[in-house]
């Protein structure tokens, strides 16, 4: 009974997932997600919005709608495995993003979506990873019910920087260097001494031929991590590129 989930609403479901031989690979008494955000397998993304609260449904998912061609380590799903899901729709409510939430809830949402992005990235689905990282940033930057304490403020800052660095990595995999550079620069506005963002920004500037800027950025990165072979190599390469040709 009750209306089906609308776009942007959050759902709570009870899920059991089994292989063809009956082996149980998933059991979650209360899985919470927003359909369309890429936080769960496609079988649930597509199937749950067709349900009503209290309804129990069975979804037989071919592998592209489950864990894909590579399968999964956690849960333990073999490659190209179809799955049977038993799903009970427990609750439908308004999505969390536009609502003022406590900082701790914002942190939980941000972490959950970033981890989902890492899952997609590891499987080579960089567009899905980027979508999850952007959703994570949206959660972290959403309205809060009260000012965060010092520890929460620091954790929010760290999670934003992680997400932006991950966005840069995904943009590079998608062949979008300008967008990757913008993500690095956004991370450095929050944390000017973030070594990962400095290194990647230096590399991207060098690729654009902006060698003088790249050298300054990479030298700063080297100050923070003097033992980095990658930074030494990048600076040596730029030095050779900037050296005038020897006369004969």
TrEMBL record:
* SMART domains, A to Z: TPR
Matching entries from SUPFAM superfamilies are given as: FKBP-like, TPR-like
The ranges of the TPR repeats are 195-228
- State the GO CC annotations: cytosol; endomembrane system; membrane; mitochondrial envelope
- Which EC numbers characterise this protein's activity in its record? 5.2.1.8
Main enzyme class? isomerase
Query: Which molecular function GO terms apply here?
Result: peptidyl-prolyl cis-trans isomerase activity; protein folding chaperone
Per its record, the protein catalyses: [protein]-peptidylproline (omega=180) = [protein]-peptidylproline (omega=0)
Q: Which UniProt keywords apply?
A: Isomerase, Repeat, Rotamase, TPR repeat
Which Gene Ontology BP terms does the record give? negative regulation of apoptotic process
Q: Which residues form the PPIase FKBP-type domain?
A: 8-93
In Swiss-Prot or TrEMBL terms, this protein is called: peptidylprolyl isomerase
Please give the organism: Falcunculus frontatus
